Inverse folding.
């Protein structure tokens, strides 16, 4: 990790906040307190908005173990060689300076009766409202033969940072003409176009560095997001390199063997050189521990406020939430955080609560300057977050449109990260 | 006069150096600049880096500026009054003024009958915009193709607090600080321009799919609220 000036200052401020935390938190407090668990797309946004918009009337504590958050968004562009890892890292210093009490620790339990969150480092923090935005965890036993102890041999790279760097290193040391495999996840999962944008970026890398590589996608799904756009892109840019194997043609994986680097699908054993396993997902574990998840592993929420169905004082944002029609994306999490911040502030301080509205756009890069996008607007109904209308890029758009779309995604990246971290 | 014209001819180079990213239809700006001379504006108003007050005030950074606010220029009593009322020279106001100065501002000292053709005004406004730095303006570029918004919609008074809430959608892409990299800044836009541009997306006469999507979910009241909020955070 490179410490630029901003990162360094940031770490300093955040560390100061950490040190003073036990004292501040131990004091009997007159102000209402919101505790946010997870400083990603949902949590960072919610913490910052509540602190900013309440003007100090609400005490905001953010619990996040990492001092640097590496965005999953654009991590595929890192694999493709368009970004370096440092450009994906963001610190919490600015947010701490804007009044969010950043505590670098893990939340390990929630006592809903006492309304406290227990920390791995010891002690617990009382809350009036608790917001959980812990992202995803993987389902045990989702892919036979794979668990996190195998993630060095077969990385998931679905939480950004060292896993992403590991996958790139494996790509770099791939033998000439080797086989790259992806085991794609079943629905629902974080970032529906993510695996397929990754394939595009991996293919871009190999086209430049190792053009006889074969790329196989073992997919348990019969279709995927922006499929026509991706397949058109693969044909135009990476002819003959990418093979998508749907379940009808043996895409459902029986087992992976990290020791011998084999994928067993439809009874057939395929020897591979790099294997990116993206297992089935569920809500981040702390949502389970708080008892707000359902049998499917996600936390059902009230679409008007993002409060959980299980506990009106606990809210769940982003990937962990089961909310209805929105895809699990950083854009969605950020959008949901603002609705939640508005509702929480209203409950605690009586500020005006405006009707919930949500939006999402997911950009993907197919190859240099060939960007595509899909997006929609949503509203809250009592039952779920409901899609009202949407759009998608078209196959056959001209190069200028695609380049503009890519340019837009770069602007969005800078926008959303500024919005999350201040 | 000759010197002054020469200055004007040099102006475009200076304009693009000093205010980069003024991504306009250059043709329209050039036409506007030609009209600025041929319609006689240049006889009283200077523009450019050395633009000074003459018979009329210089017009650098005119768009988005409070009326009657150029330092060192003695305005008519009428203009001072409008200035005190808080009149901002956004494009709608300038359009109204240029069309019929004496109707817009009875007893203005600007002895000019008015620009007769609406599209000449469009061109002039585009030219005047090149004299305004982007930070003043965002890219609140009302373009000649943008449909005119009905006066009763322009007149809706937006709720600033509601606008602030709604703006939380905008800032995911258009940074709150006004910084930009690939997506235009939208802070400091005059309300009239903001409303016109959003309606142009909503009516799909502008073709960015994301903006069409976002505006499809905004009613007249929401658009007015956003415009009021973004205008209220000037500076
Ligand atoms: C390859 C890839 C590409 C993607 N591309 C895009 C894209 O282009 N656009 C887009 O919008 N989205 C994209 N996404 C999706 C996006 O990254 C996620 O949807 C988004 O990050 C979800 O936000 P979140 O707040 O739910 O979780 P996260 O952003 O993952 O944040 C969760 C945070 O919680 C912390 N945490 C977890 N458990 C605890 C605990 N017990 N105590 C304290 N802290 C905890 C974690 O450390 C983490 O920082 C992509 C994802 C991937 C994998």
């Amino acid at each position: 990790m490179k410490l630029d000036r901003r990162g360094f200052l940031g770490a300093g401020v955040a560390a100061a906040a950490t040190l003073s935390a036990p004292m501040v938190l131990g004091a009997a407090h007159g102000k209402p307190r919101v505790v946010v668990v997870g400083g990603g797309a949902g949590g960072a946004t919610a913490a910052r908005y509540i602190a900013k918009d309440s003007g100090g009337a609400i005490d905001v504590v953010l619990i996040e173990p990492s001092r640097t958050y590496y965005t999953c968004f654009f991590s595929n562009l890192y694999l493709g060689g368009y970004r370096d890892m440092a450009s994906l890292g963001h610190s919490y210093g600015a947010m701490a300076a804007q009044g969010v009490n950043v505590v670098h620790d893990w939340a390990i339990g929630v006592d809903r009766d006492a309304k406290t969150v227990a920390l791995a480092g010891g002690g617990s923090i009382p809350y009036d409202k608790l917001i959980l935005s812990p992202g995803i965890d993987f389902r045990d036993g989702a892919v036979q033969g794979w668990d996190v102890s195998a993630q060095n041999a077969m990385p998931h790279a679905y939480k950004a940072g060292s896993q992403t760097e590991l996958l790139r290193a494996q790509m770099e040391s791939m033998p000439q003409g080797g086989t790259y495999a992806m085991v794609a996840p079943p629905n629902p999962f974080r970032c529906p176009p993510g695996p397929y944008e990754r394939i595009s970026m991996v293919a871009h890398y190999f086209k430049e560095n190792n053009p006889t590589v074969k790329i196989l996608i073992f997919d348990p799904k019969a279709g995927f997001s922006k499929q026509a756009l991706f397949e058109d892109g693969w044909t135009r840019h990476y002819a003959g390199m990418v093979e998508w194997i749907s379940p009808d043609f043996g895409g459902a994986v029986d087992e992976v063997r990290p020791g011998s680097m084999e994928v067993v699908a439809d009874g057939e054993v395929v020897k591979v050189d790099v294997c990116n396993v993206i297992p089935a997902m569920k809500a981040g574990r702390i949502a389970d521990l708080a008892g707000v998840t359902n049998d499917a592993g996600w936390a059902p929420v009230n679409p008007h406020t993002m409060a959980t169905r299980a506990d009106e004082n606990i809210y769940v944002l982003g990937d962990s939430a089961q909310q209805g029609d929105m895809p699990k994306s950083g854009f969605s999490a950020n959008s949901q955080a603002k609705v939640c911040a508005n509702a929480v502030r209203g409950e605690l301080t009586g500020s005006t609560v405006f009707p919930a509205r949500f939006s999402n756009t997911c950009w993907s890069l197919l190859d240099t300057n060939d960007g595509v996008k899909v997006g929609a607007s949503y509203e809250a109904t009592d039952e779920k977050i409901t899609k009202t209308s949407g759009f998608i890029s078209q196959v056959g758009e001209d190069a200028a449109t695609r380049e503009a779309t890519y340019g837009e995604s770069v602007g969005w990246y800078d926008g959303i990260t500024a919005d999350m971290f201040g | 006069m000759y010197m002054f014209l020469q200055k004007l001819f040099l102006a475009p180079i200076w304009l693009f150096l000093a205010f980069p990213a003024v991504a306009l239809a250059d043709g329209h700006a050039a036409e506007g600049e030609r009209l600025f001379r041929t319609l006689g504006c240049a006889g009283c108003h200077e523009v450019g880096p050395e633009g000074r007050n003459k018979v009329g005030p210089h017009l650098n950074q005119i768009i988005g500026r409070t009326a009657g606010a150029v330092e060192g220029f003695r305005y008519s009593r009428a203009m001072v009054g409008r200035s005190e009322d808080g009149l901002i020279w956004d494009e709608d106001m300038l359009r109204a003024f240029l069309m019929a100065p004496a109707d817009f501002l009875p007893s203005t000292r600007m002895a000019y009958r008015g620009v007769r053709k609406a599209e000449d005004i469009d061109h002039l406004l585009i030219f005047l915009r090149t004299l305004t730095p982007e930070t003043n303006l965002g890219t609140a570029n009302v373009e000649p193709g943008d449909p005119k918004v009905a006066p009763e919609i322009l007149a809706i008074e937006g709720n600033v607090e509601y606008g602030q809430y709604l703006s939380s959608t905008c800032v995911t892409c258009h940074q709150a600080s006004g910084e930009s990299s690939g997506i235009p800044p939208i802070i400091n836009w005059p309300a009239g321009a903001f409303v016109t541009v959003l309606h142009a997306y909503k009516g799909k006469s502008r073709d960015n799919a994301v903006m069409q999507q976002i505006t499809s979910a905004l009613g007249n009241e929401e658009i007015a609220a956003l415009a009021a909020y973004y205008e209220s955070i000037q500076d």
